[in-house]
Amino acid sequence: WASFLGGSIFHLLTPGVVLSICALLRKLISCADCSGSRLLALLVKLGLFQNAEVEFEPFRNLDQPDLYYEYYPHVYPGRRGSMVPFSMRILHAELQQYLGNPQESLDRLHRVKTVCSKILANLEQGLAEDGGPSSVTPESRQASIQLWRSRLGRVLYSMANCLLLMKDYVLAVDAYRAVIRYYPEQEPQLLSGIGRILLQIGDIKTAEKYFQDVEKVTQKLDGLQGKIMVLMNRAFLHLGQNDFAEAHRFFTEILRIEPTNAVANNNAAVCLLYLGKLKDSLRQLEAMVQQDPKHYLHESVLFNLTTMYELESSRSMQKKQSLLEAVAGKEGDSFNTQCLKLA
Predict the structure, then answer these.
(1) Beta bridge partners of residue 236, listed in sequence order
(2) Nearest-angstrom CA–CA distance, 15 and 251
(3) For the chain, which residues make up each domain, given as ranges?
(4) Helix 102-124 with 138-165: angle, nearest 10 deg
(5) Each residue's pLDDT tens digit, 119-152
(6) How far apart, in whole angstroms, are the C-alpha atoms of residue 103 and residue 162?
(7) CB of 132 within 8 A of CB of 103?
């Protein structure tokens, strides 16, 4: 999400046009019989963070009495609890970090985490979600426990992302590790992500330990995805050690297994650049974009490609404009045009 800041074409529009777009979105959502949280999600996706904040204002902290079913006993007889979707609470909490207030986001996420933890504790003690006596079947209670465990894991994941944005890497790593408890099936991916964070801050030895843990976990997995993950981690480890030739070898091995792997393709081209093979690097990235633009018109790929155009030729602006035309025909309005370095 951070990549959307300042990058959407909507930042080029006048306030009046933006308001018209918001009105159109409301009408479309109303016709589709969707909840208002869809409008908020769309505004965030389009990078219209201030407009999303305005839409949230009537709901205040999402805990007003009229946002609970008990406030409308004749409309919702017997129903209890909040009418606010969980996804809307997460969006409300995350929004502030996109507006430059990550600490406020973290505070809101902590409040959501506290509620999730309390509800989960009540369920595990055989009580209802609100702490009262429960009359549901064991199967329903178990389903509720699984639901709230996944929600708690989702909140922790958002907190980890927020801490990463704040560059508090130690706490971010701790938060990502905590997520594993609630999403054990994602352990290899989360451990790999932690290792790559550590590579970015220069802690090569600890990153290598995390990658070794990934290899132990993936030994139990079937299929090629585990092997690809291990090879990718080894490649990134060599990148962190400035061993570009060995990193390129691992990325190439991944491409033999999965020729359409965009991450391996992109990074293999970067390795070629650092090995002094600018022409080969350009050829690889251009082939990717031309052969499968729908798959490879990705911001990181285009950023690398435009950087290489600048290194290669004084006519780089013309080539960047050609990329812009390709993007305009394939991508949506939330695409981050800053990656083309047109300014």
Answers:
(1) none
(2) 46
(3) 1-83, 101-182
(4) 160
(5) 999 999 999 898 888 888 989 999 999 999 999 9
(6) 8
(7) no
